[in-house]
User: Fold Fibrinogen C-terminal domain-containing protein from Oreochromis aureus.
Amino acid sequence: MHRERRQDGVRINQQRPNAVQQLLWMMLNDRWTIMNNSSSELDSKRPNKHKKVCSFLLWSGGTLVIIAVIVAATVAILYLNHYPLPFISRGEVSSSVVSTNPKESGPLVTVSRVADGEPISIFLDPNCPDFSEHFLRWEVLQSSLLRALTNYNADNWQDHGFVQKLEEELKVLLGHTHNLRLEADSLKRGQGVLDQRLDRLQSEQSRIVKVMSDNHSGMLKLVAGFSDSLLSLQRETDSLKSLKSELSKDSTLTAVRPRDCSDILKSGVSQDGIYSVFPTHDPNGFMVYCDMSTDGGGWTVIQRREDGSVNFFRGWEAYRDGFGTTTGEHWLGLQRIYSLTRSGGSELRIDMADFDNATAFAQYSAFSIGRDSVNPEEDGYPLTVDGYSGTAGDSLLKHSGMRFTTKDRDQDQSENNCAAYYQGAWWYRNCHTSNLNGQYLRGGHASYADGVEWSSWTGWQYSLRFTEMKIRPRPES
Ligand SMILES: [Ca+2]
Assistant:
């Protein structure tokens, strides 16, 4: 039995740290000192050499027994945790036993009560060693060792003294361990405070990061707002552009709306016919016949005689407002002629034909009626004409400055009504050199100057087959 325990003790001693060996050797040396002292006392009483050898042998045997007991207790605690130690179980008071857990997954240290056998597990994370727990375990281990020693009943008085000394040493060691554990706890608390400060730093950093992120997102929102504003501005600009385009289209249409036949000709239409014109001073407009072929075209016809189908011997209102058929014989009307020529700069052309198919024309570079009148109708639509050219000779210049006279409104310089007298309506002076609104008498006639007369071409007794008065803006010279 002793031999086995010694062998175990050797094996354990080989595994124990050097500190434990030093502790045991220290304790042995102290014992040597005590034994030497007592030996000295004994020697003084009984100076016997044989007895000296016996007591040394006895002391050696006791020491071996104590070492064996310590080793056995250690072995029992570390490796036989599942089997209660015999000398502990003999004790009347149940005590705790500390053992390590052989399983890797379970708690590293198990504290179990021998009486009820219920283990109290303490888990120690091997990756994060808690030195305080290690110290605690060491303390418990030492306490257990101390109890084992206390429970050991030494028969020999020398063994008893040795055990007591060992107990005291263990108590001192226990005190040191306890202090170390307290220091470890303090360190741990310091670490805890450090952890808290680190946590606070971390939270502060998180807060700063959040604030920066908020600022960043605010900047992003600002940029997005700017972008939206720019987009809406772009849309507004596009809308304004389209509106401007529409407006310019309208103004183009207004420009395209012909003031007269020359505008229609400029727009690319070159066919003779009836068109609507909208003079600047008569925006409602009216229908006219356009001569697009004679002398470059663009002529607005204001009077036509060709077959005598229309009665031209009419009163003031008829001549003011116009009559006849636009495609045939007609008088456009003084008010309309006024509107067309009011802005000035018009030229007049009169094409004529007799019944022998002879033609002639008279052209005037300036033509207008009522141009300077505040109320042209009240003023009688006075004629302004100048700048003759042509083949029919001038039969109109003498009428320049004359008011228009109808059979019912005498505004001529004759003591009679020239219109009534010569069966027409014209800018009569002391009557006329031309009478294009006279009776359609179909060529030569016996009556005097009361037909469709152009005196400079056919005299006063030849009523023309065809006359056409037309105006257009005077070309820029
Ligand atoms: Ca008169």
